[in-house]
Specification:
The complex is a heterodimer. Chain A is α+β, with helices and mostly antiparallel strands. Helices cover 46% and strands 11% of the residues of chain A. Chain B is α/β, with parallel strands linked by helices. Classes of the chains: A alpha+beta, B alpha/beta.
Chain lengths: 158, 547
């Protein structure tokens, strides 16, 4: 994932996304998703550029970007952990795993670790409830986690 | 198409992938090539196999031999023995264990799952979801052919009405009636939308239908379009379901190539075009008007209703919005007739229901059974009893917004009418079964936390009510509850129901209401005696920090 947030890269990424989906209001969400995936988040420059090429007020672009959980408007760490905190995972022992995760990372939900490696987020159901508790590290889903496995799972990421 | 003599399925659920199923798959590809078998044997990945004890799995049909857990180095031996020499490689076979309902046709052969009846999941796990030929061989696009060549739109709606099919998304609205509203709405342009924004915690039935049988939804949507007079459709699928999205896109291309989508379908003069629109992570977008806003590229905030989408939907045009499971029922109903469909389930709720069974039970997974089965039957037959010999305490139906079912309602038939009479709702089909180790205050806290997180914030009762209820519950769980809290919670639950703009807020209070009805004593113990009977709540006496 390109982490280059200098002006040129952002503009290029936005323009590529807009030409892939076309500059229409109904494509705003796919465009924002794409930019968020490419840059790790949607920086202010990108909001400005989207607003300009799509002729949509920047306030509205921001209001859409900040509404959806899969679009980030803040910088994230190299790896994003999304921990499912819905009831099925909670009942299956999610609380103990969550505590182990907080202990291991030493950051609060929503925060990024000082070394820029981890961002911890909570998420609603990921749709794999039969194997709860579940967490997502970047695009990798881990199911049936117990607290002892948390350390080993995190070890796998550079 | 080429005739394949065997079909090999490789499990690719998250658990299997973690254990190396991708490597096994690529080794299989290589080995089949090496033995020159690639043309005779089809190879596909399936994600709905519930054999975590033995994953990664490889299943070989038609013999239905299950191999696992497999290591990549076993692949050569497996291919040589079973597929080349034709002998079962018994040393690699999975240990025998009764399968849960996930692979219906194996369990059906063994007769291990009584009463299981597959209509919407008939093909899931049985066919290669990437192959339109597989779908066609298994009765696919037959209903569409019949509809377009022999039926008028009004006849189609009539059959759906007579079948008694009710919306499977949670609300249980009669499907045929909804189709009728859209067909009768004024204007030329209409839309059909498939609501695949399955986000209700504990529900993943739609994912399995979309991943396992994507063509069934395409076929159903073309039929729906013909019936209501729409020539364009959208499948709104949640952003997290990337595999389902990819399979749908592929299926749409195949259907277009074969002429089941596009212009002049079956030479009938009927045109239908279909788009896939991915969500971006918002529970509220499962609400139909929020979903429509989201397709239009806006924040997913629900519209006031009325007017309903049936008259003023997508871009203000009449729009039919149906859930995935509802649509999956459409082709079988039109193929076999309304009377056939009514032979399953109960008179007021015909057909089957897909349940996802979760929680403190021995077997978690998914079953499709006729409407009207009871919770006790689900727990004893499919879930194989409570885990660790614990006792049943409560079940939550239909995800976060569903009802809390106490043990006194364990024998109430699960159909829309019986549950409505008992004052509870069935919801989307999730069954979260909790043992006596669960604390109701803790559970309510988790549920309210979900709603305060997912509330879109547009209307005050929902935005403030859920936040306030969460704070009160949090205080109770820390041993700081006061006697007026129970009253406040009941009031909030009532306000949420009466004053919220959309279904999210209206149902957010229902677990609270049920807990106050059935588990009042346990909540009171927290407040007056400062004791959590289940021993779950922290009861620290300190004010918790709430985010």
């Amino acid at each position: 994932m390109s982490k280059n947030n200098n002006g040129r890269d952002v503009i290029k990424t936005v323009n590529a996304a807009v030409s892939e989906f076309h500059a229409r209001q109904e494509e705003l969400i796919p465009i924002l998703m794409k930019v968020s995936q490419e840059l790790g988040y949607v920086p202010n420059d990108a909001l400005e550029q989207i607003s300009e090429v799509m002729h949509i007020p920047q306030s509205r672009v921001y209001s859409v970007a900040s509404f959806y959980h899969m679009i980030s408007t803040k910088p994230t760490g190299r790896h994003v952990i999304k921990f499912c905190e819905s009831a099925p995972c909670h009942v299956a022992g999610g609380k103990a795993v969550w505590d182990a995760l907080l202990e291991e990372l030493q950051i609060k939900p929503g925060e990024t670790s000082p070394d820029g490696k981890w961002t911890l987020k909570t998420t609603s159901c990921l749709g794999v409830c039969a194997v709860g508790p579940v967490m997502l590290v970047d695009d990798d889903i881990y199911g049936n986690i117990n607290p002892d496995q948390v350390h080993d799972i995190l070890e796998r990421y550079e | 198409m080429k005739i394949k003599r065997s079909m090999v399925l490789v499990s690719s659920d998250p658990h299997s992938i973690e254990k190396g199923s991708e490597e096994i798959y690529s080794r299989l590809v290589d080995e089949l090539k090496a033995f020159n078998l690639s043309d005779e044997i089809s190879l596909s990945k399936v994600s709905d196999i519930d054999r975590i004890d033995a994953s990664p799995l490889v299943i070989v049909y038609p013999e239905a031999v299950v191999y696992g857990p497999l290591a990549p180095d076993d692949v050569h031996f497996l291919v040589e023995e079973h597929l080349y020499k034709g002998r079962i490689a018994s040393r690699l076979q999975a240990p025998t264990k009764e399968l849960s309902g996930k692979i219906a046709w194996i369990s059906a052969r063994a007769g291990t799952l009584p009463a299981e009846q597959r209509i919407v999941l008939e093909r899931a796990g049985l066919i290669d979801p990437d192959s339109i030929e597989d779908y066609i061989i298994h009765d696919g696009y037959q209903a569409l052919g019949k509809v377009l060549s022999t039926m008028k739109p009004a006849d189609v709606i009539d059959v759906v009405k007579k079948s008694g099919l009710k919306g499977r998304g949670g609300a249980g609205f009669p499907t045929g009636m909804k189709w009728g509203f859209v067909a009768d709405a004024a204007g030329d342009k209409r839309y059909v939308i498939c609501n695949a924004d399955e986000s209700e915690p504990g529900t993943f039935k739609d994912r399995l239908i979309l991943e396992g049988d994507p063509h069934s939804i395409i076929e159903a949507m073309v039929i729906a379009g013909y019936a209501v007079g729409a020539d364009e459709g959208y499948i709104y699928i949640r952003g997290e379901y990337t595999l389902a999205q990819a399979r749908l896109l592929k299926a749409i291309l195949q259907a277009k190539e074969m002429g089941f989508l596009g212009e002049n379908i079956f030479e009938s003069g009927f045109n239908f075009d279909l788009h896939v629109h991915g969500g971006a992570g918002a529970y509220i977008c499962g609400e139909e008007t929020a979903l429509i806003e989201s397709i239009e590229g806006k924040r997913g905030e629900p519209r006031p209703r009325p007017p309903y989408p049936t008259t003023n939907g997508l871009w203000d045009k009449p729009t039919l919005v149906n859930n995935v499971e509802t649509l999956a029922n459409i082709p079988p109903i039109l193929r076999n007739g309304a009377d056939w469909f009514k032979s399953f389930g109960t008179p007021s709720s015909p057909g089957t229901k897909v349940y996802t069974i979760l929680g403190n039970v021995n077997n978690t997974g998914l079953v499709e059974v006729p409407m009207g089965i009871t919770l006790r039957e689900v727990i004893s037959i499919y879930a194989k009893g409570m885990r660790n010999g614990r006792h049943f305490k409560l079940a939550q139906t239909g995800g976060s917004s569903g009802s809390i079912i106490p043990s006194v309602l364990q024998d109430t038939p699960m159909d829309y009418d019986s549950y409505a009479k008992a004052g509870v709702s069935m919801g989307s089909g999730a069954l979260l079964i909790c043992s006596d180790e669960t604390c109701v205050v803790d559970l309510a806290k988790v549920l309210l936390n979900f709603f305060r997180f997912e509330s879109c914030g547009k209307c005050n009762p929902c935005r403030i009510g859920n936040q306030r209820a969460y704070q009160i519950l949090n205080n109770i769980s820390e041993g700081l509850g006061s006697t007026k809290d129970t009253n406040d919670l009941q009031e909030i639950s009532k306000w949420l129901y009466e004053m919220s703009n959309c279904g999210l807020g209206q149902t957010a209070g229902s677990p609270l209401k049920d807990i106050m009805n059935y588990f009042r004593a346990e909540v009171d113990a927290h407040i007056t005696n400062k004791v959590c009977p289940a021993g779950v709540c922290p009861m620290s006496g300190k004010t918790a920090t709430t985010v």
